[in-house]
């Protein structure tokens, strides 16, 4: 059983994996609570220490694979040695091998996104190196309009992009850029190679990563199903994993 911090409630979590595990972790909705706006997320102060302990317990085989930009993800995690696949694997930090050229949104797309958000209070246009996102969590009635704009931008050759739904958002992402690609590239090199990968995520954008883990004999854990939809419980369980594996190693 894992106790949810600040609740006093003990909830059953997945079994603790063996020392041959590798973790691929989503950020928003998994390690971090979802915020009303992407720039309003609160990072628990204990997160860097948790990730460092987990890395130590697993010989470094821990990575974050997120839709966030690389600099933002690096700032949130606070662990310089942590491999990060950003923008759903479209942007790779230097520790990830096998980067491939990907398109960038044309300037007129970015202008159209900014104009769309400016005309709709409560929405937000988020710009990434290889994509853009329209957020409408505070204005859910704007969903249809967001999708309509992205569909309009893609008319013609589409510049190699497609539309991907997310939590209260719609995203333009390069075709072929997904979290599964980041998992596969890492699983080809130490310290991940030969391990059983586990991907923890909370929404449809994480399914590619989970499918990739299955190719290597691993699996996915879904926050809504396996952790009662609570990132705090994910963190508590990962802390237990780190402590349990470290204790086992210490008894050898």
UniProtKB/TrEMBL annotation:
Record has Lipid metabolism as a keyword: no
Domain of life: Bacteria
Catalytic activity reported: alpha,alpha-trehalose 6-phosphate + H2O = alpha,alpha-trehalose + phosphate
Main enzyme class: hydrolase
Pathway: Glycan biosynthesis; trehalose biosynthesis
Entries under PANTHER family matching the protein: TREHALOSE 6-PHOSPHATE PHOSPHATASE
Family label: Belongs to the trehalose phosphatase family.
Protein name: Trehalose 6-phosphate phosphatase
Species, as recorded: Muricoccus pecuniae
Lineage: Bacteria, Pseudomonadati, Pseudomonadota, Alphaproteobacteria, Acetobacterales
